[in-house]
Amino acid sequence: MRVAENLNRALHGLLGDDPSVYVLGEDILDPYGGAFKITKGLSERFPGRVLATPLSEGAIAGAAAGLALAGEKAVVEIMFGDFAALAFDQIVNFAAKSVTMYGRRVPMPLVVRCPSGGHRGYGPTHSQTLQKHFLGVPGLSLFEVTPFHDNRGVLDRMLALGEPCLLFEDKVLYTRPMYGEGAVDELFTWRLVDDVAVVELAGGGDPDYTLIVPGGLAHRAVSAMRTLLLEHDLAGALLVPSRLHPFDPAGVPGLVPLLARTGLVCVAEDGTAGGTWGEHVAAGLHTRLWGTLRRPVALVSSAASVIPTAVHLEREVLVQDTTIRSAVLEGLHG
Amino acid sequence: MGELRVPKLNNNDSEYTLLEWLAADGAPVRREEPVATLETSKAVEELTAEQDGTLTHLLAQGAVCRPGDLLARITSGDAEPAVPFPAPTLAEKPGGPIITAPAQDLIDSLGLDPALVRTLDVKVVRRADVERLAASGSSASQAALSVHQRAVGRTVTLSHRTIPAAYTAIKVDVGAALTLTRDLTRRLRKLVGLPDLLIAAVASLHDKHPMFFAELVDEATAAVPETPAVGVTIDLGTGLYVPVVRGRPGLAEIAETMTAFRRHAQHGTFKEADLRGANIAVTLHHDPDIVLAIPIIAPGHACALALASPQPEGDRTVATIGLAYDHRLNNGRDAVLFLQALKESLESPEGL
């Protein structure tokens, strides 16, 4: 099953099981079903709970936060994650703060879905990966869709947290299949440790390096791992968390032995360089595993640049499998 | 000669699935005739032949392919027919492990035999595996195997090659059985042990579970013996022997026979007749703390049992009895029924 279908089914299941859930967004009604068809079939099946909105992200996030505050649950679709910037005030100053501003903890079951990322030639304002701007906001959690985690489980978990959550969905994932039980390909297997998907070489022993990436980078990371193994004889492990923030891999007991035995930890992400998610994760690893880490954590991010529309220029700015491969080789040997 | 390549069907997918071949491998096709369907993330597209000719598939149905990949060749009708084209590169190394480039370099520079590399039990051969292989080849001293061990080797190899075995184990409360062996040892003034009870119990199952004593004659036929003949493994360090306890003797007789067998094993005085004609085997692994053993099924047998050592469990004593069985003769359900009957018999040993 492809990731888009998995997301669509998750929303169908959620609305079917929980009559207090609303879905809001631009152009999400049938027959159009949303810019990426993730909301397809919802409005016909659940009329009155799937609401098409005017083109105002602030209004959408504000109305959804109001629903949550009034005891309902809301899932918002921002057509392109880039436009979440327009909803920043409602998310940070209203939704996240409402959890703690009323003298007691007020549950705010709100999910803001953000189709993100490039590699499609959509240009500077429709291709971004904006996680870093939402890091460290009290009362706000960040998740990312991965090809490992079933999205129904992810949605249920976010709503149960009782605080607003952003769900980043890398658009390149939509058309890719979900990984089946246990196997990534003929070389690598995967398993869950806590909420972190761990990809390893079957019977590979201690990893020469360990990658940590958000879900959108999973395929590029696996591709880099194949090349590093077959051409450079380096066996790696890959960690793909469902929740990006708060995220503390050195605080997950099941991951500590892996991180302690690895030759290099490399954190890769699609956001632009500077003030990144990866820097935050690396700072946590340096603090917690000081004395165990063999080398400084290596970081990979997109260039500090706008994202060009022309595909050959876009490729130079965004993280590719080759970018990850070079970072690992440089980290280990450079 | 024409090629059928994967076209670029949309901007969003990096790969498609070859859903179906509409024209068979080797079939004659006409220009414009649909020959295959490709599935994108959103739709199924038909691919048509670009010329008349004979179609040769190069990818299997269900394969994942990328734009530009070669799907098939179409040879024109009057050209040399059906030239066998080489299979795609991936299919050229059937069964062999994947070898990393640095590992291959080392194999080449050491001049290692590729067959030796294939003996490595790994999915991916890495440089460290090759180094280990090279080291073991140069430093291992050679030891000749005894005639006896070579015979064992031939038998177990034949078993592994020819018998599709399955395995089930059951836990048996052996408290009552151990009490009985102590009583009998005192009363008969003869050493009676758990193996003797197990032999008696197994022999007693012959009537109700004959297929575990059967011999597979051919795919459709099994020969069922009229009486049980239980082979028992005895290895006192002088070689592995499997002498046979025939029929359904009483416990005293079994104990006496087993004592004689142990003496023969020690002195190497077994006669061929002692070792012939078993139709089921009991293997003994009841040395302290052995918890599990998977026996080899002797060629011609339907199964083999393994007795592990009794272990305290709460206020009772239990032992695991494993059953490896030829799945062509018996299924899991039969194995469970057989083991349950054996358990029942050993847990109420006064009936033996």
Account of the protein in words:
The complex is a heterodimer of chains A (334) and B (352). Chain A has 334 residues and is of the alpha/beta class. Chain A folds into 2 domains: 3-173, Rossmann fold, CATH 3.40.50; 188-333, Rossmann fold (3-Layer(aba) Sandwich). In chain A, 32% of the residues lie in helices and 20% in strands. In chain A, the strands form 2 sheets. Chain A has a 7-stranded mixed beta sheet with strand order 2-1-3-4-6-5-11, sandwiched between helices. Chain A has a 6-stranded mixed beta sheet with strand order 7-8-10-9-12-13, sandwiched between helices. In chain A, a hairpin with a 2-residue loop joins strand 7 (188-193) and strand 8. In chain A, helix 3 (57-69) runs parallel beside helix 4 (88-98) and helix 6 (218-232) packs across helix 10. The longest helix of chain A is centred in the N-terminal third of the chain and has 15 residues, at 3-17. Chain A is globular, with a radius of gyration of 20 Å. The model of chain A has no long low-confidence stretch (mean pLDDT 96). Chain B is α+β, with helices and mostly antiparallel strands. Chain B folds into 3 domains: 2-90, RNA polymerase II/Efflux pump adaptor protein, barrel-sandwich hybrid domain (OB fold (Dihydrolipoamide Acetyltransferase, E2P)); 98-134; 148-351, 2-Layer Sandwich (Chloramphenicol Acetyltransferase). Chain B has 8 helices and 21 strands. Chain B has helices at residues 101-110, 114-118, 127-139, 147-162, 175-188, 194-204, 251-267, 332-347; strands at 2-5, 16-21, 28-29, 34-39, 44-48, 53-57, 64-65, 70-75, 98-99, 124-125, 165-173, 215-218, 221-223, 229-232, 234-235, 240-241, 244-246, 280-285, 303-308, 311-313, 316-326. In chain B, the strands form 6 sheets. In chain B, strands 11, 14, 17, 18, 19, 20 and 21 form a 7-stranded mixed beta sheet that branches. In chain B, strands 1-8-6-3 form a 4-stranded antiparallel beta sheet, with no helix packed on it. Residues 79-93 of chain B have low confidence and may be disordered. Classes of the chains: A alpha/beta (334), B alpha+beta (352). At the A-B interface, helix 6 of A face helix 1 of B. Chain A: Residues 1-176 form the Transketolase-like pyrimidine-binding domain. Chain A: Its EC number is 1.2.4.1.
